[in-house]
Amino acid sequence: MRPITGEILIEAPRAAVFDFVANECNEPLYNPNMLRADQLTPGPVGVGTRFTAVMKGPRSTTVAIEYMGFNRPQVLNSLSRTAGMDIEGELSFAAEGKQTRLTWIWRLRPRGALRLVTPLVRALGSRQEHNNWKALKKYLETPATDSIRSDMRNLNARRKPRGPPLARKVSWSVLALDHEVGTADNACQL
Length: 190
What we know:
The protein has helices at 14-22, 118-141, 146-157, and strands at residues 4-10, 34-39, 50-55, 61-71, 75-81, 85-96, 99-110. By secondary structure, the protein is α+β, with helices and mostly antiparallel strands.
């Protein structure tokens, strides 16, 4: 199967975009199809860091994610596994002035019954990825407001308490997050 590819230009510095994306626990903040994400391994995010995510659908799907490559702030490689598919992913982050060009490549390896509908899986996956990254762009380019903070509090309310809430900085001159990316007590710090 041909890989799913695409790119998007985000009005934020490369390191800030990389750090936000590398912390998989942030994805439910902009991906409406992801109900939750938790870091399974202790310590900072890097090669070998594992997460579990729960995706919305007719039946919720659990995704096991492991970082296979981590070259901050340029490249993030992952292996995601579901019951019916393995997905090898590569995200590249290129600085273009004060912007970041995020490029994605996903290699889908359907198993079992999903192999029979491979073209449909690829088409749906391609559309979903484009929508996810458009939502990330909108999220990162929108100044922090009370409504966003409210969204984050609502997200945190669905989780077990694990530390201070995440809040974006209005200025990108510092890391885009209130907490140090990757610090965790075996769970995401949101």
